């Protein structure tokens, strides 16, 4: 995915290789998944049956003890309370009953499906199982000890839906693993193919084009030992040889020029015509030492960035729950606010760190800043995973936030340095694409990991991934990076004041960008994990639910962008996006269960996919004068910083809403806030127009 | 003032530590650590060596504590007490242990009246099987006494007892008969009244009338039980009352005759009579627990006066199944799961 257009050879090779790999991988993954599911299904049902028998045996033992003391079966006291203890501690057990030898039900708890009394009347065989309605009923004999005749039977009803639910959960988990494996494979293939095949081929192609016109001043830096490597090596050898020969010839010509004999003069006449002709056509390196060229690729950035964001997103689906585990009262804040605090603080530190990270990247180079960020991130993840209380957690998360700012800015700097103004947007799209795909993978797999390994171990996994990202950068980023083509904007207070003095800009911030960030951090990052957990979802389920946002974003953004471009729309997508995002939140008024939340998350994703890019592209047009005065980069820099006010405020505002309205209505209120802001934004631009009178003229 | 007190405390502590250090040094020099000297423990009981006394003695055996236990039984005779006090002092024993409230008060005195001439005050001492140590002024509260004594209690807190009675047979009315001459019993009934008021059930309390000889009248018991039974209480409560404990066969069988179960704060009425339910610390366990605390004093050098009054942490629920059958009042399964069940009542 190098920025330069692929050469005619590389495109088809890459496409075919990708296609083949994906097909092979998909086939094997699906086969493995099916096998895993079959095994699971085959094991699950007997397991459930075994469990019913185990629970039943422990119950009959207690009943037997009572019988042995001479208490008649029908005179047992407190049987329902006794059964309820068991029923309440095993979610899958829905029904328990005792019948006498005639099959009359003496005691029972739970809802018996129709036909149960007929069933138990006919069933007295110990260990016998059968299906009644939704229940798998296992029956055990009840008898005094010492081999006496049974005096009755105990029936344990296990919910078959529970078995089904377990199976569905596993299917979902397997599907997530499949999807993530595909996405990660795609990233890795991209990396391998770019570094090993398409980039060298493109480089060779470019070099050959130069040679074609007589330019022998460059060789290629390439150290692989495969076919491509050998080819490059030979090509480099030829170029070196040409250089050497040319130099040799030049020396001989010079020698000849120095000779003043008649023969020499004749020769010179003949030669000079040819030589100077050649000299005009061929360019060789000074001292016969061609410059070694290494071509940079956006993949150099994309892969480590992907890995780091993947690491960071692993905790997305459970982070607020982890915080509530470590909860400690903080004076002046409600419990909900304290749980939102680490997210807000993280956003705050990212906001504060970003401008500095930009300046440092410029001064120390992307490689150094990325590596510094990775070291902080590793410490941050390990510290977060070990945090004994809230205060340690806050410290380590703030450190991770600074790491996040350093790493993202160093990668942006790298892209800026290797792109031109024309293809920079494409470069940034590659970058944002990696972030979004990593968010899909991290959020979903993080949930699965948290379910199986626990919260703390998942943070350690993040640390390990950060190490891998650092190793990538250590090997691929160049030590001496080309000077940034453009200095980062120096943001001053006066810039903020000037821009906020522009009512159109202020309206765009206040009614568009800030509410969008508030609902993102407040609803998605903070409240979704807490509320889905409250509704009884597992970590994997929460991760899957949150992943929907990123999936809709990844697939929606390019489609909507193309549509908007085709119809030349900017403002309409912003409005429709705001209405979708807000409407998704307000859905909670009607539909406050798990599915409703996921639908809301999906609508939020659709809304943001529609509005995020057009909103940013509106900024230069409503600030034409400011762009002229301070440059577009500065204007967008101010926009980015102000927008983060919403990110920081989101969790706090939401915590406040939760305390007064409860979780579901807090989400709805956030939706109403976004919807209301969008309406105000629409009305404002309807009345004021998107351009000032002088700009329009 | 407080600074002064603290300074004195530090001073005393320093001296004590130095003294301890010096003693340790001597031991090392002599090379013969107390081997010649066996501990002497003076154990005074009220009515023979029953379960707590046995638990105490057996703890010493199983832990192989090198001690002679000198056991003296009063045989319910209070006049023997001054003789025991004198003997313990004369023998220079290392620890005095008492069984029961009367014994404890006679040997140790109350926290207000303890007299070095009449009581054990210098020798470390430990009481057990005292139901209301605070109520009878043996100690001021359940904290460390500061005197050279400590003790163990055996009653399970009344709230806990009543909660278990509720879980066996929910009640709105409970009847209690007690000997007004026993301070323990009177205090226990007062506690019950307070709890009844708080929890909203009725307590029917009747003192045993005094006979012509000035002692509580045993013959009045059946009539008293019958009279209370008319009010249909769900339970009779038998508190820590010596008179009722002595007459437990008569009392519990009269209750069963009237169709009302007895719920006892002690072990014996359930184990050897016809009470239905008891929530107790078993005497044997209390004896062992007291033995463990004696070990602390003798071998670990803990001061008796520094140990708070304590009880074993796990209590037992005892159910008399014969009575349950007679009354057709079977225990709920959840309670039965962790109960000791008495299947045969020795007559």
Structural write-up:
The complex is a heterodimer of chains A (697) and B (347). Chain A is α/β, with parallel strands linked by helices. Chain A has 22 helices and nine strands. Chain A has a five-stranded antiparallel sheet with strand order 2-1-5-4-3, sandwiched between helices. Chain A is elongated. Residues 1-6 of chain A have low confidence and may be disordered. Chain B has 347 residues and is α/β, with parallel strands linked by helices. The longest helix of chain B has 29 residues, at 2-30. Chain A binds chain B through residues 62-63, 65-66, 69-71, 75-79, 81-82, 85, and chain B through 321, 324-325, 328, 330-337, 341, 343.
Descriptive labels:
heterodimer; A: 697 residues; alpha/beta; two-stranded parallel sheet; 22 helices; 74% helix; 6% strand; B: 347 residues; 5-stranded parallel β-sheet; 13 helices; 12 strands; globular
How would you summarize the topology of this molecule?
The complex is a heterodimer of chains A (697) and B (347).
Chain A: H1 10-68, H2 79-89, E1 93-100, E2 105-109, H3 116-122, E3 128-132, E4 135-142, E5 152-159, H4 160-212, E6 215-216, E7 218-220, H5 227-258, H6 262-281, E8 283-284, E9 291-293, H7 299-313, H8 319-325, H9 335-364, H10 366-386, H11 390-418, H12 424-453, H13 455-476, H14 493-501, H15 503-534, H16 539-567, H17 571-586, H18 594-622, H19 624-630, H20 632-661, H21 663-688, H22 693-696
Parallel strand pairs in A: 6-8, 7-9
Antiparallel strand pairs in A: 1-2, 1-5, 3-4, 4-5
Helix pairs in contact in A: 1-4, 4-5, 4-7, 4-12, 7-11, 7-12, 7-13, 8-9, 9-10, 9-11, 9-15, 9-20, 10-11, 10-13, 11-12, 12-13, 12-16, 15-16, 15-17, 15-18, 15-20, 15-21, 16-18, 17-18, 17-21, 18-19, 19-20, 20-21
Chain B: H1 2-30, E1 39-45, H2 51-62, E2 67-73, H3 81-91, E3 95-99, H4 101-108, E4 125-128, E5 149-151, H5 158-168, E6 173-178, H6 183-199, E7 202-207, H7 221-229, E8 235-238, H8 242-246, H9 248-257, E9 262-264, H10 268-271, E10 277-280, H11 283-299, E11 316-320, H12 321-327, H13 333-336, E12 339-342
Parallel strand pairs in B: 1-2, 1-3, 3-4, 4-5, 6-7, 6-8, 8-9, 9-10, 11-12
Antiparallel strand pairs in B: 10-11
Helix pairs in contact in B: 2-11, 7-9
